[in-house]
Structures are given as structure tokens and as C-alpha cells.
């Protein structure tokens, strides 16, 4: 049975990543996929990269990852993100930069499922509203004709968009804990954020995807937020980066 643990936007939060990996392991899932932004915001970028290498996680490149070895790209970041990225760059070693450079921006999983960070079109693009979802579905139809299901990150929200055979795009609110995908529809699916969730739920978010059944389980797990916050403060990163973890915003 092909089952995948899919997660995104770890952003250097080691405590959250450890909790997610432990939860996925308890579910008996061995294939691990990270949709990007392993670094930035939190205090343990190097440790997170090392853990993913050790666990054999397949990783897509995120915009913060890209900016770590292409610093000019961080010029468009807000002040908090820019400062945190500089901290990440200072923490990383040459092998870490090599690891990030080797990550693809797009990848097709099992020749059927597209993996990206922002959107298939651009690493920094968002799929956060109906217009952006429709644009992405149109892109898939034109340029990725074999793809029905695309997994993406970047927004830090668990989300599922669906497009039926008529081209009607909808989303499901609230998300069910488990959903069987319709073989006649196309889907854009976001696992949410491990290390900096922004949907008002401070747990670390991820999903389990059963490729044989094409079934998605949206998951979340508690982690040691206080420990992650203390590390941020000890690293002299902006206090707000610690405070926002408690509220999941």
C-alpha cells in the first residue's frame, strides 16, 4: 500500500517536526514528502535539515530555502522574515546549502501527483483564493495534462480545492478529517504548516495520503511550543515569531 506522509513549511521548528515525524511513524507510514520552506522564522534550521536527511525525507524547494542560497530573493521579504532568514543562513553549513540546492522546485510523484511549494507556475505564488485556484487548475490542464492532484504549501493553511468535469472550482469548509477523492475531479491540496501554522490552531499540521485509495487524511499534532519559543528568544530573533506560535497565526 502506497501511503505518504506529506508536510510543508517546517521553518526551522525542530520540536514541531519531531512531533510530526513521530506521529507519522506511529501510523506506519514510511514515505515522507516535504513541500518546502524548511528554514526561516524558527531557531533550528540546521537541525531540521539534518533530521530530514537522516529520515530520508524527499523535499521540494521553498522560497525561503531558495533565498538561503540566493540572498537577493529575500529583499522582498518582510522585516521579520528577512531577519529570520539571515539567522538561518548564519546557522547553516556548506553541506546544508548543498542539500537545499539539490531540492527540485517541481516533482511528479509516482508519475501521477505533482509536488510544488507555491504553485506549479512559481515558487513564490500563492494558491489562497478562488481566482488563484482556478488559474492553477487551468495551468494544470494546459501544461500538466496527466496530473489530477497537486500538493502544495506556502500558505500555512490546510486547504483542498476541487475542480469537476465542468470546470467548476469549489473548496470544502470545514475540512473533514478524511476524504476520498473523486476520480473524475482534479484537486489542489495543502497539508498546512508544521512549524508556523496560521489557521488559528497552534498544532503542527500535515496529511496522510493513501495513493492506492486516493484518500487524504488531514492531521495535526501538539508539540512543545514553549521549548520552541524559548529557543527563538535565546537566538535573539524577533519576539513576535515566538508569540505567534502560541496562537497559531
Protein model, in words:
The chain has helices spanning 14-26, 45-55, 63-69, 79-91, 94-101, 130-143, 225-234, 239-247; strands at residues 3-7, 31-34, 58-59, 107-109, 113-115, 149-151, 158-163, 169-171, 178-180, 186-191, 204-210, 215-221. It is α/β, with parallel strands linked by helices and 249 residues long. Helix 3 (63-69) crosses helix 4 and helix 7 packs antiparallel against helix 8 (239-247). The longest helix has 14 residues, at 130-143. The model has no long low-confidence stretch (mean pLDDT 96).
Features:
12 strands; 21% strand; alpha/beta; six-stranded mixed β-sheet
- Mean pLDDT comes to 96
**Proper CATH architecture:** 4-Layer Sandwich
Distance between the termini: 35 Å
Strand content: 15-25%
Number of helices: 8
Rg computed from alpha carbons, rounded to a whole number of angstroms: 17 Å
Topology (SSEs and partners):
Layout: E1 3-7, H1 14-26, E2 31-34, H2 45-55, E3 58-59, H3 63-69, H4 79-91, H5 94-101, E4 107-109, E5 113-115, H6 130-143, E6 149-151, E7 158-163, E8 169-171, E9 178-180, E10 186-191, E11 204-210, E12 215-221, H7 225-234, H8 239-247
Parallel strand pairs: 1-2, 2-3, 5-6, 6-10
Antiparallel strand pairs: 1-11, 4-5, 7-8, 7-10, 9-12, 11-12
Question: TL;DR of this structure?
Answer:
The protein has helices spanning 14-26, 45-55, 63-69, 79-91, 94-101, 130-143, 225-234, 239-247, and strands at 3-7, 31-34, 58-59, 107-109, 113-115, 149-151, 158-163, 169-171, 178-180, 186-191, 204-210, 215-221.
Amino acid at each position: 500500500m502506497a501511503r505518504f506522509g506529506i508536510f510543508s513549511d517546517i521553518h526551522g521548528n525542530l520540536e514541531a517536526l519531531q512531533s510530526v515525524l513521530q506521529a507519522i511513524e506511529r501510523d506506519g507510514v514510511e514515505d515522507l514528502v516535504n513541500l518546502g520552506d524548511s528554514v526561516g522564522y524558527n531557531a533550528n534550521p540546521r537541525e531540521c535539515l539534518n533530521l530530514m536527511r537522516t529520515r530520508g525525507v524527499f523535499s521540494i524547494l521553498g522560497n525561503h530555502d531558495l533565498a538561503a542560497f540566493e540572498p537577493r530573493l529575500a529583499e522582498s521579504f518582510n522585516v521579520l522574515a528577512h531577519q529570520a532568514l539571515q539567522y538561518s543562513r548564519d546557522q547553516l553549513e556548506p553541506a546544508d546549502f548543498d542539500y537545499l540546492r539539490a531540492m527540485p522546485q517541481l516533482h511528479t510523484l509516482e508519475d501521477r501527483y505533482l509536488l510544488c511549494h507555491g504553485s506549479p507556475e512559481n515558487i513564490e505564488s500563492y494558491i489562497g483564493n478562488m481566482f488563484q485556484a482556478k488559474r492553477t487548475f487551468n495551468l494544470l490542464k494546459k501544461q500538466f495534462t496527466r496530473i489530477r492532484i497537486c500538493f502544495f504549501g506556502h500558505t500555512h493553511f490546510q486547504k483542498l480545492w476541487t475542480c469537476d468535469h465542468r470546470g467548476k472550482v469549489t473548496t470544502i469548509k470545514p475540512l473533514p478529517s478524511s476524504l476520498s477523492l473523486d476520480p473524475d475531479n482534479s484537486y489542489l491540496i495543502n497539508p498546512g504548516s508544521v512549524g508556523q501554522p496560521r489557521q488559528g490552531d497552534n498544532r503542527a499540521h500535515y496529511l496522510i495520503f493513501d495513493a492506492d485509495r486516493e484518500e487524504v487524511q488531514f492531521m495535526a499534532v501538539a508539540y512543545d511550543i514553549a521549548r520552541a519559543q524559548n529557543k527563538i528568544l535565546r537566538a535573539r530573533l524577533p519576539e513576535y515569531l515566538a508569540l505567534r506560535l502560541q496562537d497559531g497565526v
